[in-house]
């Protein structure tokens, strides 16, 4: 835990308070939910956890986006409110550790997991440095038991961890950063280049973000393995997918499964009819897009993915309309 806090404080020590406050709230909420005598008490503590964590995320990541959108909307009617934006620094990794700590209280509320009584273990789980700033998003059911049990040095795991770190560094430094030189040059002023050059830069960018993110995941997974912790795989050759549905089962898998288990299913999943299913799918992808970034282009991106996923789901459930294989 100390190593994780030093790691995070190296960027900006002031934002350690957010992780600590969030950890205290969810450690307490988990115990209160589990020991509550009534359903009302259980829901109350779950709501406290949701409001606190999503509140922090909304303020630090989305406040200015919502305010700017509001100002632009009311500006159509001639109303120009005073500047409402704030000079807010986005805390590194807040999206990741917020989702990680929320999964803990939600799993306890669903009776899928029992809370820990070891506050040191829980604080370590929330702030564990290999995956603190960019995932993978680990569930408490996988990581907390590993933190609480005694670990022994495993030469095989250590060697595997070293190899995976080296692979991750190669993906990030050699491939992704090299592609970034070309991509950044083209996108810095697209008016200077023809359409084929811009198209090539777009293709290179797709591989840049893959090797950048998957490379970091390899480094995180390998680093954890050096210390005797096993994370889940986060990428599984997503660009070889035969459909967008399959793509989201292979790209940033820890996020995809989090959105499925805690958002899509919580909205009703596919249990309340076909129209509600499509609605839930679209809302999940819209919010997934917003999770990636606080701007309209991310929301539009999520909407496009939601639309295509809905079309694929429709075609799969109506095989007589067209020959379709997922």
TrEMBL record:
Transmembrane segments: 15-34, 46-64, 84-106, 118-137, 192-211, 298-315
Domain of life: Bacteria
Pfam families: MBOAT
Name the record gives this protein: MBOAT family protein
InterPro entries (alphabetical): Ac/AlaTfrase_AlgI/DltB, AlgI, MB_O-acyltransferase, MBOAT_fam
Topology in membrane: Multi-pass membrane protein
Family (UniProt): Belongs to the membrane-bound acyltransferase family.
Cellular localisation: Cell membrane
Sorted UniProt keywords: Acyltransferase, Cell membrane, Membrane, Transferase, Transmembrane, Transmembrane helix
Provenance organism: Maribacter litopenaei
């Amino acid at each position: 835990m100390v190593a994780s806090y030093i790691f995070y404080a190296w960027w900006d020590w002031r934002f350690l308070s957010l992780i600590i406050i969030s950890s205290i709230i969810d450690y307490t909420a988990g115990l209160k939910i589990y020991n509550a005598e009534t359903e009302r008490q259980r829901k109350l503590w779950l709501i406290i956890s949701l409001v606190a964590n999503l509140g922090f995320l909304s303020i630090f990541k989305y406040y200015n986006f919502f305010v700017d959108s509001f100002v632009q909307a009311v500006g159509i009617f001639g109303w120009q409110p005073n500047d409402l934006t704030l000079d807010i620094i986005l805390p590194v990794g807040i999206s990741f550790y917020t989702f990680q700590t929320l999964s803990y209280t939600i799993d306890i509320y669903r009776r899928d997991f029992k809370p820990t009584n070891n506050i040191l273990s829980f604080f370590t789980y929330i702030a564990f440095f290999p995956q603190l700033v960019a995932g993978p998003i680990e569930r408490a059911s996988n990581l907390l038991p590993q933190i609480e049990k005694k670990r022994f040095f495993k030469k095989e795991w250590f060697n595997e961890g070293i190899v995976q770190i080296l692979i991750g560094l190669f993906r990030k430094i050699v491939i992704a950063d090299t592609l970034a030189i070309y991509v950044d040059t083209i996108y810095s002023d697209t008016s200077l280049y023809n359409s084929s050059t811009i198209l090539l830069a777009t293709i290179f960018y797709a591989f840049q973000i893959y090797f950048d993110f998957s490379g970091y995941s390899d480094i995180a997974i390998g680093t954890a393995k050096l210390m005797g912790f096993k994370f889940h795989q986060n990428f599984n050759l997503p660009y070889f997918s035969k459909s967008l549905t399959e793509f989201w089962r292979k790209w940033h898998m820890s996020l995809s499964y989090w959105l499925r288990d805690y958002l899509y299913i919580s909205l009703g999943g596919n249990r309340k009819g076909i129209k509600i299913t499509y609605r839930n799918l679209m809302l999940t992808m819209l919010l997934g897009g917003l999770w990636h970034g606080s701007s309209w282009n991310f929301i539009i991106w999520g909407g496009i993915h939601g639309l295509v996923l809905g079309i694929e789901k429709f075609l799969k459930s109506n095989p007589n309309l067209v020959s379709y294989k997922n």
